[in-house]
Amino acid sequence: LRLPPRSRLEHSPSFETPELTLELRFTGPRQFGEAVHSLQRLRENPALDELFHFLELTPEEEPDDASS
Fold this sequence. Notes:
Elements: E1 7-11, E2 20-24, H1 29-43, H2 46-56
Antiparallel strand pairs: 1-2
């Protein structure tokens, strides 16, 4: 996903919910601005939509790995 430097994206323990937590660390206006810019690019990244789709799958919707 190419997150901003000094950031962390976490899912709920055991993936119980599709919620994510984003932690950003910065020491000044410049680093904050760079993080905001990175987040704007992240919003346009199709991988983010894929991640949310994956998190929202119910057990009945999960792909069958046995057929691989």
